[in-house]
């Protein structure tokens, strides 16, 4: 991204798009019963409360009544429909790590022939976004979930820790190419969840080959364990290399969330918060999703930045836009054109 002398002046920045992840799939409801919704009505109400507090992007996961994360397509459809009715302007962003499971014997008979993560393109009603990872990566969240923060929670159990430490995000080239094709055909915008510079570089190659032609909404994820670590130099290097025309959101874990969100807000970028990222504040006390949004709004206002409403957030994210050519995609995202045969030096537009 390019910064001018006045780029840090708030009057020259887009309004702030706050993403909230309030469904904390790694936690059980008893870990934070005041904040983690369980019933469908509670899950819809949580979206309403977050929107009213200032968040315009809802990172959505779904929970069953036993407290476990849902793998049922029907439950996702139900929650999306409920949120769409309750807060129609909110951007619904479904977490793309879900693999759906069969709900009947008839489905089970054909299930193994399908890549169940591609079914995210078949959600009804359609979400605005599905998050998409680039490159298969280790996702060991336990590296940064320090024991003192896990006492009294389900993640203190050694077997659960072992399972989470061995998580991977499968996102090989063929899968990503097909997933992007299906999402674009369904009119669902991918939101790219990037683990570091290598993922950004791969995404640029995907765009330059024409496998994706649309806006670039990116999240840098500094959670360690196979992703970038929460080192500001990792974040700033990523900012430096990100295309000028993208949007960029910061995501981290626990006590790193507030510092990285503050850096993002100061630089004209966007924050993410919610109990999927942290259930504690800077003093180690329980800190709910709505409280985190309210804190983010306060910090943004101290920095002179305004908070986007739902309509404004949709315009900033360019929800619903797709492009018809590689060159149009590159230009819309502030990227240099592809090199033409025999072209010397740095390719530029006339």
Automatic annotation (TrEMBL):
<protein>
    <submittedName>
        <fullName>3-keto-5-aminohexanoate cleavage enzyme</fullName>
        <ecNumber>2.3.1.247</ecNumber>
    </submittedName>
</protein>
<dbReference type="InterPro" id="IPR008567">
    <property type="entry name" value="BKACE"/>
</dbReference>
<keyword id="KW-0479">Metal-binding</keyword>
<keyword id="KW-0012">Acyltransferase</keyword>
<keyword id="KW-0808">Transferase</keyword>
<dbReference type="GO" id="GO:0043720">
    <property type="term" value="F:3-keto-5-aminohexanoate cleavage activity"/>
</dbReference>
<keyword id="KW-0862">Zinc</keyword>
<dbReference type="Pfam" id="PF05853">
    <property type="entry name" value="BKACE"/>
</dbReference>
<dbReference type="GO" id="GO:0046872">
    <property type="term" value="F:metal ion binding"/>
</dbReference>
<dbReference type="InterPro" id="IPR013785">
    <property type="entry name" value="Aldolase_TIM"/>
</dbReference>
